[in-house]
Amino acid sequence: MSSTATATVIIVNYNGAHLLPACLDGLAGQVLASADRTDELSFDTVVVDNASSDGSVELLARDYPWVRVMANADNLGFAGGNNVALREVRTPYAVLLNNDAVPEPGWLANLLAVFSAPGNVDVGIVTGKVLFLPKFAEVALNTEGFQPNSSDTRDLGVRIYGVEVDGVEVSDKILWEQAVYGPEGSGSGRFRWSRPAGTFLVPLPGDAAGPKSVERRVRMTMSVAGERAKQLTLMVNGRLVAVQATSGRSTVSVDIEAGTPVFDVINNAGGEVFAEGSGGDRGFQQVDRGQYDEPAEVFTACGNGMAMRTAIGHEIGWFDDAFFMYYEDTDLSWRWRSAGWHIRYEPSAVLRHIHAASSKEWSPRWVFHVERNRMLMLTKNATADLARAAVGGYLRESLAASVVAARQLLVQRRRPGLRALLLRWRVLGSYSTHLPAALRHRISLARKAHVRKGDLQRWLVPR
Predict the structure, then answer these.
(1) What are phi and psi of 400, to 5 degrees?
(2) Cβ within 8 Å of residue 115, ≥6 positions away
(3) Nearest CA among 223, 251, 240, 228 for reference residue 156
(4) Which residues, 6 or more positions from 79, have their beta carbon under 8 angstroms from its beta carbon?
């Protein structure tokens, strides 16, 4: 890697040949300049390929000869893949970029400028604003609610089986945060329960969304079912569409007319950790109305678009290889903060991110890594009380689910749903395997800490 470059941008890739061109073309358009704007500063680009089988390496050699490729024999995940390059970086700054993200002009220069700004000598990490790639239209839903039984006290509305926009299935691309619960079932029976009322954000095709409004009519089609016949109301830009949701599936189509307002939506404006120990994206799925347009100190940084001081990384350590993917950035941020370094959010450094392009939310693989790594992160970094509460709570929930399954099998003589239960015990088994190493890390981090665990946890926020 170049010794004269200012930064090294690292992109981990796994079967992302369809994503790399937009990412690298956006990166190629970045211009870095020194403070007096008289000379340009250079950056290196490294793509770490995690044993792709889709022609990614060949594409890079043919179309992007300026990119250095580091090819792994196995898929080392986001954590291990980045570490392969991070351990070799010699430029002053190391910058991470997802292969499913597209940097806007000025992203890299604005990110790196924070380090040299007056008063920022103790800033170790800078993170930018991450927006979802498409523009979105807002749809409001309303229906009569109900609670299914005494053990499930959620307020439910209707089952949503699928959503298409102009004939293309987009259920996993819709931003559901304010309107539905997590997915249930599998295959063609997979659905989400809506809340009785809420809003969700529908991604629009690129040729349909202008800067501020829809430029041509778009048709949204939903497959829904109620627990009984009842009215479902949808509202788009103040226009009501009422349909009858029956106990069987029915289809409702809604036209999103030209002139309907469109929005940018926030994926991440810096990271946060909730009081019970779960990590989150600040501003997640909020319409970007400028509420995160001021620089700020944040507790954690997003792995997609974070810039780090290389010397500090070599001293403190990069990602934990055991995490593979998810929570590795929160764990690293927590460790760097423990060593006394600050993390700054810079809103002018903007990335656009393709939602669920690299991994599928709520898939068994996603749940496994999120739940296991959350407990590993807390075991390494949190106070003993918080770590015990999180791990103990997950264990108690798993035992309770096992008792329910046993009762269904032995007393009620019906087959219990075992897939989610087995996944829980797989999570606990893997956590137990990694527990000795996590405890060794905990002891080592405590010896080197400049900030006490209790003081760091004052950053935790209520959910």
Answers:
(1) -65, -40
(2) 93, 123, 126, 307, 309
(3) 228
(4) 319, 320, 321, 322, 323, 324, 325, 328
pLDDT at 52: 96
* Residues forming beta bridges with residue 287, ordered by sequence position: 265
What is the pLDDT at residue 244?
84
Quickly tell me which residue has 């690293």 as its tokens: 332
Q: 419-448 and 328-338 helices cross at what angle (nearest 10)? A: 20
Question: Tell me, what's the pLDDT at 37?
Answer: 46
Beta carbons within 10 angstroms of residue 112's beta carbon: 21
Pick the CATH number of 7-126+269-353 from 3.40.30.10, 3.10.20.310, 1.10.510.10, 3.90.550.10: 3.90.550.10
> Taking the model in full, what pTM does it have?
0.89
Strands (E), 133-194: 136-143, 159-165, 168-169, 180-184, 191-194
Q: What is the spatial distance between Cα 394 and Cα 200, in angstroms, rounded to a whole number?
A: 30
CA angle 266, 269, 274 (to 5 degrees): 105
218 DSSP 8-state letter: E
Q: Which residues contact 448 (CB under 8 A, 6 or more apart)?
A: 338, 339
Domain residue limits, the chain: 7-126+269-353, 136-256
Spell out the long-range contacts of 58-61 with Cβ–Cβ below 8 A and sequence spacing 24 or more.
59/17, 59/20, 59/21, 60/20
Q: For the chain, how many residues are written?
A: 463
Q: Cβ distance 108 to 349 under 8 Å?
A: yes
Band of residue 158 on the pLDDT scale cut at 50, 70, 90: very high
